[in-house]
Specification:
With about 270 residues, this protein is an alpha+beta fold. It has 4 helices and 12 strands. Strands 5, 6, 7, 10, 11 and 12 form a 6-stranded antiparallel beta sheet that branches.
Length: about 270
Amino acid sequence: MKNPRRFLIALIVAFIATFAQCRYITVREDQLLYDSELMPTLVATQNIPARFKLDETMVEVTDIPRKWRQPKALEEIEDILGQITSNPIIEGEQVMSTKLVKPDEAGLAFYVPKKLRAVAIAVDQFTAVGGHVKPGNYVDVMGSFDFGQNEKSDIRTVTLFQNVWVLSVGSDIGQPTVRTLSDGEEEVVQSTNEGNFKTITLAVTPEEAQKIILAQQLGDLTLTLRSLWETERFVKLDHATIHSTLGIPQKVRYRQRPTWQIIRTGGF
């Protein structure tokens, strides 16, 4: 061999090139295997419009190569149960968490039954059964109105609506919320107003909503709480008048409830 040094250099270069090529092939092979790994993915089996509650009949689990799987795609049917769509999902599209909203994030509108409306009634401890009304209860709405003239009062109490579903009490919709703690852990918190609320929101028809709004302007509304064991939804009732209540025919002067004024100091 005339020049062993050149031969050694060529051998080293060939070795490095072969090693680099083998390394490249190994890395590329690992990458291809990684990208082609089949991942369970939820796919829509039908067109799903926005603001639609999902169930297990609308999706299926399909194996999709990792490379073609969306970053926020869900993989289990349990992940979508009870959630609603914030955007439309097309048939065959991967179901992503970014297109879904949890019920507690959707707000009260999620719980309003179809074709009904949510309407709030101003209440206090006297007109809301001492603060014992809870979301999900059923109540009757009663109103007291003065039909008298001048100083003569003719107050009548009538039951306006029966068996009305309570959607919320103050800001409490009766559903637990998840709160993230400082250490990253999540805590389930049951919402409660502890009696400190000024409104109760009911689910009524559009026509009933109009009547409730007008009734609040004309008189005083009071809620009565229905039993959980109530079987009869509607009871025929006569109007309660001063005569039927007191047993005397004369009209009496109405004594209004005193108005309280809170005076705060310090500019508040």
